[in-house]
Amino acid sequence: MSIPTNLKYSKSHEWVKPEADGTVTVGITHHAQELLGDMVFIELPEVGRTLKQKEECAVAESVKAAADVYSPISGEVIAVNSPLVDEPGKINEDAYSSWLFKLKPSNTAELDGLLDAATYTELVENEDH
Amino acid sequence: MLKMTPLNQTHRDMNAKMVDFGGWDMPLHYGSQLDEHHKVRQDAGMFDVSHMLPVDIKGDNVRSFLRRLVANNVDKLTLPGKALYSCMLTPQGGIIDDLIIYFLSETWFRIVVNAGTADKDVAWMLKQRDALAPHLEITPRRDLAMVAVQGPNARTKVWQVIPGSQSATEELKLFQSTVVDQYFIARTGYTGEDGFEIILPAADAPAFWKALHAVGVAPAGLGARDTLRLEAGMNLYGQDMDETKNPLESGLAWTVDLKSERDFIGKQALLDALVTQQLIGLVLIDRGVLRSHQQVVGQQNGVEYQGEITSGGFSPTMNQSIALARLPVQIAVGDEVDVLVRDKKLRAKVVKYPFVRNGKALV
Which of A28, B26, B191, B284 is the most exposed place for a label (fewest CB within 10 A)? Predict the structure, then answer.
């Protein structure tokens, strides 16, 4: 599966989509769901919570394992994808449309430090070998 | 170098996700562990269990040797082909392994042991053989493969594949086996569903697997095998018990015969044992997933107690999390306990297992 070029990525396998209104949408990558297998449980952060970059803020559990989700950048949680909690398998079907939460960034410079699609592709390929 | 079963290439050809399972290169799933789980509960699935080891014991009066070697009573095996689940114990009562013994004749018993313990099991058997019955021949059968076909339609599918197997096996009861040509067919399993475990020559395994696939049996990996056995409330060696635990604190008292005069290895230790712990079922009330090694805490009559989850996971059939946990014997079915999950305490209810049998939730 190709890695969308309009997104940014963290080394811990979150994707970040900068929106037109200055907010960002965050999810976990296709590669992350592939490593985890069938998803069975999602825990989302509280709306209004302030997150620091790389802070643990959500949990994704599959039949196999539990994985922490880290906030790719600092900011305030302004929305969460609540329906996902009842259908965690959606992440397996399409990781890039199954977002977890939206942030209002507190330091947009952090966005520049994230990986672009080409660099993230390289990271995933190196992991596989 | 990982060990490979005779079906290794077959799994790869079917796009299996392979993992290192105790030194064996085994399929974890072939796409979706959940789909494989449901296929076994609702139709038929197959597992490569060739990493497990059949050990043949042959010679005069094998039975007498086994009366001493294992904790269950082989005198329950009167009909040829009959199988018995048992633990093999240390003199201290610790579980060396859990295994299935097939009675083929008075001069031939077959024992199927776990993969991870196979070497130590055989070494232990040989040591006891040398001391007790040096005339017996003990042969590990790495020349054989083993395929478990499980699910409500499993037997019918096997009958389609092995000519003449229907008439030979349709009268088999649970825990009975028979031989059809090169196939050793037992009505046993590790899923809580009907089906067969079939032992056959390694060279025949790929064709047999493909023939089963052609009649609609879904390949299923170790992932589904684990969720199925957990739902079925079946212990996993190395996780729910090991040499530091005895059968009485592992939910396996029903497999130990302490009534007969027979003296087996570990018997005295079990008679002397003060049993303070039990293996019992948990169903998670709160949202989340129970996992092995999570701590269980609570209070009873003002006294703090602690326990541990030995096997936990998500039950696809019940759509909630379940676990086996080792808790103090005072904790009873119906009690509620707290499980420490990350920084939270999650509420769980103590239940009697199995959780699922023949496709239906029991709790």
Answer: B284
User: Which of A63, A85, A89 minimises the CB distance to B313?
Assistant: A63
DSSP H helical segments within chain B, as ranges? 8-13, 33-42, 62-69, 118-132, 154-161, 165-169, 205-214, 222-231, 267-272
Q: Chain A contacts of B34, Cβ < 8 Å?
A: 38, 40, 63, 89
Q: How is residue A97 written in tokens?
A: 């449309």
Task: Answer yes or no: do B82 and B216 share one domain.
Answer: yes
Q: By C-alpha distance, which of B111, B186, B94 is closest to B149?
A: B186
All structural domains of chain A with their residue ranges: 8-110
Predicted pLDDT at A2: 79
Query: Same structural domain for residues B71 and B207?
Result: yes
Number of structural domains (chain B) is 2
B288 chain-A contacts, CB cut-off 8 A: 41, 43, 61
Options 3.30.450.20, 2.40.50.100, 3.10.180.10, 3.90.79.10; CATH for A8-110 is 2.40.50.100
Please state, in angstroms and rounded to a whole number, the distance separating the CA atoms of residues B143 and B166. Answer: 26
Tokens in use for A86? Answer: 């009842």
Q: In terms of CA atoms, which chain B residue is nearest residue A64?
A: B223
Q: How many angstroms away from the CA of B32 is the closest CA of chain A? A: 7
